[in-house]
Design a protein that fits this description.
Distance between the termini: 56 Å
Largest sheet: 4 strands, antiparallel
Helix content: 40-55%
Structural class: alpha/beta
Number of strands: 29
Strand content: 15-25%
Shape: elongated
Amino acid sequence: MKDKRGRTSPYDPKTTEARWYEYWESKGFFRADRLSGHPPHTIMMPPPNVTGALHMGHALQDTVQDALTRMRRMQGREALWMPGKDHAGIATQNVVERALKEEEKKSRFDLGREAFIEKVWEWVDEYGDRILQQKRRLGDSCDWGRERFTMDPGYVKAVQTVFVKLYEAGLIYRGHYLVNWCPKDRTALSDEEVDNVEHDGFLWHIRYPLADGSGHITVATTRPETMLGDVAVAVNPKDERYTDLVNKQVELPLTGRNIPVIADHYVQQEFGTGVLKITPGHDKNDFEVGKRHKLEIFSVIAEDGTLTEECGPYAGIDRFEARERIVKDLGAGGLLEKIEPYKSTVPVSQRSKAIVEPLLSRQWFVKMKPLAEPAITAVRDGTIKFYPRRWENEYFRWLEGIRDWCISRQLWWGHRIPVWYYTDSRGEIDEARGFVVSIKQPKSGMVQEEDVLDTWFSSWLFPFATLGWPEEDPETQADLGYFHPTDVLVSGYDILFFWIARMIMASLYFTGQVPYRDIFITGMIKDKLGRWMSKSLGNGIDPLELIEEYGADAVRFYLTILCAQGQDIRLDPAGFQMGRNFSNKIWNAFNVFGRFIEPGKEYRRTRSIEELELVERWMLTRLAECIESVEGALVRYRLNEAANLLYTTFRSDYCDWYLELVKPQSGSTMSEESIALAIEIYEQLIQLLHPFMPFITEELWHRLRPRAEGEACMVSRWPVASDERDTVGAEQFTFLQEAVTSIRHLRSRYGVAPGKEIEVTLSVSEEQLGLTEVMIAHTEYFTKLARVERLHVGVDLPKPPQSTSTVVGSAVVYVQGMVDPAEERERLTKDLSQKEDFLFRVQKKLQNEKFISRAPAKVVELERQKEADAKAEIKKLRDSLAAWSET
RNA sequence: GGGUCCUUAGCUCAGUUGGUUAGAGCGCUACGUUGACAUCGUAGAGGUCGAUGGUUCGAAUCCAUUAGGACCCA
């Protein structure tokens, strides 16, 4: 650990991380076994997409999950962190299609369904594990032996069983509805997969001539290309401008078709001209209007986004090109009254970014209301709790307004819907004969539904499908019974509806249990400027590069520090230096006593707390308090608080004060007893840090003491806050700290050379009499920390000649040998006025009768104490100042 | 249009159920290589907690209004 100059070299994560990960895994520490006899603690990892690569969101969420898992494991729970990966229908299909095009210049249609799926499997086999390998670099302590893929045979069975059961319960139905259609991916989408994006468009005012030749009516629309599918124009029944025209016929331009003018309250009079074209085949609202008025439905846009055969001269043209042509043709016919700029929202596919087309098609749906109700109750009655609470509102809002879920996708990669159709003599599907819902082919000759299921239709089963459901053998039953319900789900709010809420519905319906009791919602990671990280912006930060540069522990620790109660995180990669610096500090601190450790020797403290040094008693007290606070922070999922507490305790308490005082003078060595306590405290601190920084703590834990084969920090027993405390000693030490700080302050102000030794007089007040002895006994502390050569302590000592002073509570610290009256007066005057301001505020409070009568006694007592302290300090300051005025 | 969140030191952010003389990291200033650590230490500068009004003995924290920003839903 030393370089040529005899200096300790910085901590190098590369030499430890891979080694310890292999060690843990080879010892089976990640495995969770229900026969252990320990109470379980389960976390389900949100399964990453097989196509994915590790990004900062994973790094953050895994850090949280791993910290919770490791802490619980150390606390004696049988901690299962269940890993898996998601087949991610569209995403994966797209990736493989792209690869196919690049490598073989082929489309999936060139290969055909079977061969294409074969290709996808090859791809999954080759690259699917990449992200899970990357997660190992972070130190994730998941039970890899249980890893599940949402396309595993067992998982497939779970998905199909769920489909069949929901169908049999009347919760799945098939029907022709207007669905969100993505012309790019050529599949239906659920409402959740569609974003409404505002864009700058136009409002076209188009004249529809009246069939009787008595003029025209002007329609305002944002989508002229769909006019070919118009079946009516509509006005508001209250709109007097158009009352006469209702029930008349108008001629649909460019088609010659006659369509009626209808009255419907859906029409807003203020919008455009107050006349809407009704196109039930391509607009959800129009669809409803059409239903009310029993109008026909025309589809004029095909699945690929081009206009259909029925569109005459426009057939086969893409919808946006058709828009331009139609507008042009209308203009040429004198039917275009005006065009005005107009901001409207367009539905966009979250994945492909293509504009979604409402299209009439035959799809499969889940009736959600019956599933949603118990899920609402579970959160309402507190069975499930959100951290932070505010996400409950969002959850309720969605579930209370829930709409049926379109689960069929016109893709090839995914769970094929377990529905079978009869065929006719030519082998063609004969829909007229209906269908059979079944996992197995019900009859030879029957063919399976071509559509696959929405990816989320498999992910929503994750908490129980990964634990063996629906197998009924006793082994898996027992596992499910033991690990489910899980304890906490850690996830981002981006998949609150897609996944979190749906899991609750599925678990409740199929297992009768909630999937988890707590939901910890993390913030999302943004870039330095607050923008989402995305490939197209190129502003992503690769966690693996960060690990390479700073080490996994540093990355994890800094992410934990940032992870405050669901707030989004603006990430500045330079910030990870903090984590690295802290790692290094931990590493070097060990060296202070570590270099005196005799190999193979076991150091155990024999002294009781009464026999310890003042600083040791103080440190033990601080440690116990720290453990309590960390504990409290962790149960409330305040990981950032826990990390902060440990940071301060380690850095300022342990390193800056404790180690500075117990480390030996140059040339001498540390006593065995002293080493033993340093080890004891250090050991607990690194155990507490282990959940956040597993690698470095494991390494140091082994250097600390001789360890038996198979022991490890990660499976060591979590420290318990000890009763071995000395609050009186701790207070005395705190006073000493303040005195030292003020001496250092004076040294600094007077520019005293660091090596120069000084003489100090400490004048305490009568009430502090007890301190005198303690301070004298610890002159050495002053020497070590502030280079005080001689220390005089007494009650109300006079100001030594040629000295400067500062006030610490009701005590005065005089530092001899440095004097500058002007400087002194200035500083003391400033301190005095500050203190007087403070006293004024406190007294104002105390003079307020209402405060005395209404505030809790404890608070009043505290203020009284403040008043007394401030008065004592002011007195000392005045005295000092007076002494200066005399000279 | 409905809803949620954010606004605290130059920057990025913490701040339990209202009671601290409002904190951290980075940055900045001065000094410093004393046998753990310059990926460090010591000392320091820097904030009327977006604005206004209210509730309260007491407000960064609760309520209302308002300004700016982010997001979700329609």
